[in-house]
Amino acid sequence: MSKDKLPSFEIPPEIRQLAEQSVEQAKKAVDHFIAAAQQAVDTLEGRAAVAQAGAKDVGRRAMTFAEENVASSFEFAEKLVRAQDAQEVMRLQSEFIRSQLEALSLQAKELGDAAARSAMESVKPKI
After folding, report:
1. What share of the chain is helix, strand, coil (3-state, %, to 5)?
2. What is the C-alpha to C-alpha distance for residues 50 and 54, in angstroms, rounded to an integer?
3. DSSP for residue 8
4. What is the pLDDT of residues 21-41, one digit of tens each?
5. Sign of the alpha-carbon dihedral angle for 78, 79, 85, 89
């Protein structure tokens, strides 16, 4: 046999068919894997969007509360400058502290509830 000629080699039809089936099965498996990975990415993106929306809501609420608290402080300051005596100043101070503690307690509860709802929504399975 010369160096230029390679021996003739025939692949039996059964082996060729088996190889074709193996390639097709591998392609299907990879396609399924890619589809599952894409679904996982979509799920994570959806949960991140829900969490981000929840965080924005909590942030907006916190800003609203901050604005309300600043307005209350200015209202208190205006009352203080109009006070007639030390007794009135003490009464105004006492009322302001009591009302601010109540407001802060309610605000903290509302923010906590909103954050908890947001956390629950971000982990809730999509149906």
Report:
1. 85, 0, 15
2. 6
3. P
4. 988 898 999 888 888 888 888
5. negative
For 83, the 3-state DSSP assignment is: coil
Q: How far is CA 115 from CA 4, 22, 36, 57, 59, in A?
A: 78, 51, 31, 9, 10
Q: Are 99 and 107 in contact (CB under 8 A)?
A: no
Closest by CA to 76, choosing from 57, 59, 93, is 93
61: Cβ contacts below 8 Å, ≥ 6 apart: 110, 111, 114
Question: Beta-strand (E) ranges in the chain?
Answer: none
Q: Which residue, among 50, 99, 110, has the nearest Cα to 75 in the 3D structure?
A: 99
Cα 33 to the center of its chain, rounded Å? 26
| C-alpha to C-alpha distances, 61 to 67, 114, 119, nearest whole angstrom | 10, 9, 16
Positions of the chain with pLDDT under 50 = none
Share of the chain above pLDDT 90, in %: 31
